[in-house]
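Sequence in, structure out.
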Amino acid sequence: MRGRLGIAFLAGFFPGLIAGVYLAWEVFPPSPGWSSPIELASPYQELWIVLAAQADAVERDPEALRRRLEALGMPDLPDRVAALAERGLLENWPSGIVQDLARVAQQVGARSPALVVILATPVPTRVPPSPTWIATPTPSLTSMPSPTATPTPLPSLTPTPTDALSPTPFSVGIETPTLTPTPSVPHRIERQMLCEASPLLRIRVFGPDGEERSGVRVWVSGPRGTEMLLTGLKPGMGEGYADVQMETQQTYRFGIEGLESALAEVIARPCRRPDGQTGWTGWEISVRLAD
């Protein structure tokens, strides 16, 4: 008796289940739901802002931008967009994205010195190093018949004895003697050598009053070409601060825009860290402008 009841139950259950699923999905399907960007989690809202800024860079349609951003329902939208632009700057996002965010932040009413500096900075491009920055003329240049076309070595680019590192261990933060400025470069320069796992060239620019100065364009020439930097893009590090990652065993030259000669030349060489591990020499260069 029980066997017959079980068979009868199964014979009715499976056809009923199939019929129910068919009715639920085909005959009486649920109506589509509606969602809004305001319901997105915070990381996806930030992605929405980035995509809206990139779209505006192409469309240049203020009304479309306004509709996209208002869909997020953020009461503090200007501050959120400005914070996102500054975060992208500190985390080394692509320069185009950071500038798109800064431009949108100003459009929605945000105001801050960081936004002004970001928008005033051209998108960095790497160019081949200028022959005037090469300390030793190449054979092809020396063989040219015109003597005026041959670049001559710059005295300020010649490595000084302070650049050579001793193989013996040394501590972090060894300061080298102040460089003697040339008559054509009325600036005072100080260099400090640091032994670290990942070498970094840090640049700080001060005005005649000793206060850090933002918005100063500096160039750094290295193995990958010449980069133009702008001080003040990382306010957390100081108004006159800029930096560039160094490659090991490579030479870097640093100067102020508009000056043909380099103010300093440094090399990332092996060194011994205080913990006994092998490191590389990073540098901190301080420049005090005469005017």
